[in-house]
Design goal:
The chain has eleven helices and no strands. The chain folds into two domains: 67 residues, no CATH class; 139 residues, no CATH class. By secondary structure, the chain is mainly alpha-helical. This is DUF1700 domain-containing protein. Keywords: Membrane, Transmembrane, Transmembrane helix. It comes from Ornithinibacillus sp. 4-3. It holds the Pfam family HAAS.
Length: 210
């Protein structure tokens, strides 16, 4: 590594102080410096000013990490897990009320939602992309395992509902006019792509965090 890279990392280590994730932070930015070195033909040409223009000053980086020290993996995990549960609970309550009560305003909401399934899919895809993006932005390289754990916990309601519907434990009549074989197949395929979508969001967030 060239002298400017060493200088940058030494200053960052000093500014980080006694941060609980100090070693991980230094390792992450060491990786960023190496990546930038690969982009120049001559390592000696990677100047200190270019480093801070691309990564920020050590003082700015340290300030951001100190501000984010309160954001823990468990908090992020449960934020998305609970959010997905709320979505499913809300949908379940709407389905139950629609099928057991003749309330016109509920029927209007149901009819409106069942007429725009594509929009619902897009919104839900954005939810999973946001999951990956936020983890990538907050935790960088070490966020990959956090993403995996969060995804596995968050996807449980989806898998449970899919099981109940496919094996007809829940009456298909409850979900009309949406539920038919093509729609079920589409839901299965849709569920299969949720992790790749979250992963793309993660890489995007990780890139933004640099």
């Amino acid at each position: 590594m060239n002298p400017d890279g060493e200088k940058f990392l030494q200053e960052l280590e000093k500014e980080i102080g006694n941060h609980p994730n100090k070693q991980d932070i230094i390792a992450e930015y060491k990786g960023h410096v190496y990546e930038l070195l690969q982009e120049v033909s001559d390592e000696e040409k990677l100047l200190y000013d270019e480093l801070i223009s691309r990564l920020g000053t050590p003082q700015e980086i340290a300030k951001l990490w100190k501000q984010e020290s309160g954001v823990t993996p468990k908090k992020v995990q449960w934020l998305f897990v609970v959010s997905n549960i709320i979505i499913f609970v809300g949908g379940s309550l709407l389905t139950i009320v629609y099928n057991f009560y003749n309330w016109s305003w509920i029927e209007n909401i149901w009819n409106m939602l069942t007429q725009v399934p594509t929009i619902l899919f897009i919104v839900y895809i954005l939810f999973w992309a946001l999951l990956g993006y936020e983890i990538g932005k907050e935790f960088g390289y070490k966020g990959y395992r956090i993403l995996q754990k969060t995804f596995l916990l968050s996807i449980i309601p989806n898998l449970v509902l899919m099981y109940l519907v496919i094996f007809k434990i829940l009456p298909h009549e409850w979900f009309q006019p949406l539920l038919n074989i093509p729609f079920i197949v589409m839901c299965v395929l849709f569920t299969a792509i949720l992790y790749p979508i979250s992963l793309l969001g993660y890489y995007w967030g990780k890139k933004v965090s640099v």
